[in-house]
């Protein structure tokens, strides 16, 4: 009996030239010795026919951005490309034609429990009427993330929770969260950084992983977050203007909370930081001084005027 579970909402459709492909990512689960599968939708939105030729590869994480790096299908450490079969692998799509390509993953009975990763890539080729034949105009594909059920290890460590500067004179304040997957299966972390002011009031909440990106085993993924009141503020703006438009003052606490895995394990951390808009404060202090001094001069002038009136009345 096939045990297949689609674990994630499909991500937005994306395009390569005239070809529209969806979904760009599929998450499946099955046990060793069984099969799993799904469907890929391909649409030729151009006015000319295109030929699609499939290439099956494995992938690993590239750097800390979550971008995939494709490797050969015979690299089976965490791969599944050799287990993939398509019902259509080389065909021509007429203008505005849509085709559904079904694929099947035949998992060996001795497959190790955990995450296995492959990609179904399509070389998009333009069919030319002249003798030059076929021109490759692009490549796009779908990432397939398979969980082979069994004794899984879902473990993640907080490698870093930091911010860009020690002392800030205005917003924005940028935070960096680096999560290391030390387990045997991919995870989709969820959480946020909560910002509280010196009175304990929550003034902002920054989502950690709004696009539900995955962290693969033996990899680190960085998430960059930014707290600002006016999005898109130019950090090169005059300092006084920047401090005024993104004003914040006092000591703040940033509390990170991350949940991951089927058992909802948690990672937490916090840090304190200060925002001191000294230019705005200096301008405000100068204005207050002008008011105080001006008021004192005015009061003295008023008292002298009262004194002269009293003298004039007695004379």
Question: What can you tell me about this protein's structure?
Answer:
The chain is mainly beta. 14% of the residues lie in helices and 47% in strands. It is built from 2 helices and 19 strands. The protein has helices at residues 239-245, 278-314, and strands at 14-16, 19-22, 25-30, 35-44, 50-62, 67-71, 84-86, 90-93, 98-106, 114-127, 134-148, 156-163, 167-168, 173-181, 190-196, 202-207, 219-227, 250-260, 265-275. The strands form 4 sheets. Strands 3, 5, 6, 8, 10 and 11 form a 6-stranded mixed sheet that branches. It has a 5-stranded antiparallel sheet with strand order 1-2-4-9-7, with no helix packed on it. It is elongated. The N and C termini lie far apart (117 Å).
Give the structure's gist in a few sentences.
The chain is mostly beta strands.
Q: How does the helix and strand content classify structurally?
A: mainly beta
The count of helical stretches stands at 2
**Spatial separation of the terminal alpha carbons:** 117 Å
Order of helices and strands: EEEEEEEEEEEEEEEEEHEEH
Strand content: over 45%
- Contiguous uncertain segments of 5+ residues: 1-16, 129-134
Main attributes of the structure:
315 residues; mainly beta; 6-stranded mixed beta sheet; 5-stranded antiparallel beta sheet; 2 helices; 14% helix; elongated
